[in-house]
Amino acid sequence: MSYDLEQIRQDFPILQRQVYGRPLVYLDNGATTQKPRCVVEAMTEEYYNVNANVHRGVHFLSQKATDLHEQSRETVRRFLNANSVNEIIFTRGTTESMNLVASCFSEAFMQEGDEVIISTLEHHSNIVPWQLAQNRKGIKLRVIPITDEGNICLDEYEKLFTNRTRIVSVAHVSNVLGTINPVKEMIEIAHAHGVPVLIDGAQSTPHMAVDVQQLDCDFIAFSGHKMYGPTGVGVLYGREKWLDRLPPYMGGGEMIKRVSFEQTTFNELPYKFEAGTPDYIATTGLAQAIDYVCQLGMDSIEAHERDLAQYAVSRLQQIPGMQLYGPMAYGAEGAGPLSFNVEGIHHLDMGTLLDRLGVAVRTGHHCAEPLMHRLGVDGTVRASFGLYNTRAEIDVLASSIERVCKMFA
Ligand code: PMP
């Protein structure tokens, strides 16, 4: 499939709709993405023709549903270039994946006074789970500072390692600034200290090829709904040698080998971490979404979104009073979300008025309050791009911002 935007947009029915009598310009892809027809149809087809609980039945439908579910796991394995399907755990999303690692890793490998390194630009889902572990076990959070441009200070990162550092947990791409962190280098540094790394891939996996063997990461988390798949399903990749050593996260059906009141033994990977009925319909949808983006080509998607982001920077920079945040505002390449404020206009007012003009953006702290604090703002407006957005839509964004500015003038 070549990168034919017109054709691609036809695959997403919602993009044809209007809001307030205007064509929808959907620029909130960092929060969630729209779904191509093939994803919805595959899930509907499974409900209509295959539905049965997985792994438990000897009957025809259960075996078919199990086959589909396990094929989806293989699709995810291929997508991440993981060594084995044993390393692919289905979760409800990035948040659950991050909580799983923070909870199980701290339980198994961290004592009071041991340290986790995170960064200033983390989403709350990579801060709060570690604070919960802090409350339970007395671990410490060490935080990598960022520059005014919104880049990780690598020198400071290196200095944070002590003989109590047990894990590093950082975002691949910032959901606010679009910063692409040098995670490969950060992983090398951590490994040189004998420390494993968890990557929050929520904002990278939808936008660029992510190869866990090439990155050499120990864990990576992502959400299906941010990459054109359904809500309610996500992934935790973990290196087998780590997953093997972690205790289970939740107890229940599927994650056990044998249960008695005296003693219970746990199932093998990946099932040890998948208690209860998985969302096997959503895993089918996720696999369809992965096939869809892979057919377009992750490199083509990245190139397209980089072009859009660069174009947006150049258009928005011309608007008087515009303050853009993050590395892209300083000339760095990036495809990720673009945050801004316009002097004298509150981000919430800007977002609300843009909405009335048909432009969907996000406003507020973006679940990154410590980063807002570092930037010295209480919130920003964020435009985030997807594989189906067009330069014409960026023009609508820019002219709509200009209209809002006129209203406030
Ligand atoms: N991390 C980052 C960087 C994110 O952008 C998000 C979603 N905004 C999350 C984690 C949480 O993802 P989810 O709500 O799908 O669990």
How is the topology of this model organized?
Layout: H1 5-10, E1 18-19, E2 22-23, E3 25-26, H2 37-49, H3 60-80, E4 88-91, H4 94-109, E5 115-119, H5 128-137, E6 140-144, H6 154-159, E7 165-171, H7 183-192, E8 197-200, H8 212-215, E9 219-223, E10 234-238, H9 240-245, E11 256-259, E12 264-266, H10 280-296, H11 298-316, E13 322-325, E14 338-342, H12 347-356, E15 359-360, E16 362-364, H13 369-375, E17 380-383, H14 391-408
Parallel strand pairs: 3-15, 5-6, 5-7, 7-8, 8-9
Antiparallel strand pairs: 1-2, 4-10, 9-10, 11-12, 13-14, 14-17, 16-17
Bound molecules: 4'-deoxy-4'-aminopyridoxal-5'-phosphate.
Total helical segments: 14
Mean pLDDT: 97
Overall structural domain count: 2
- How helix-rich are the residues, as a percent range? 25-40%
User: Strand percentage, roughly?
Assistant: 15-25%
Helix and strand composition category: alpha/beta
Molecular shape: globular
Question: How would a textbook summarize the main sheet?
Answer: 7 strands, mixed
Under the CATH scheme, which class of the largest domain?
Answer: Alpha Beta
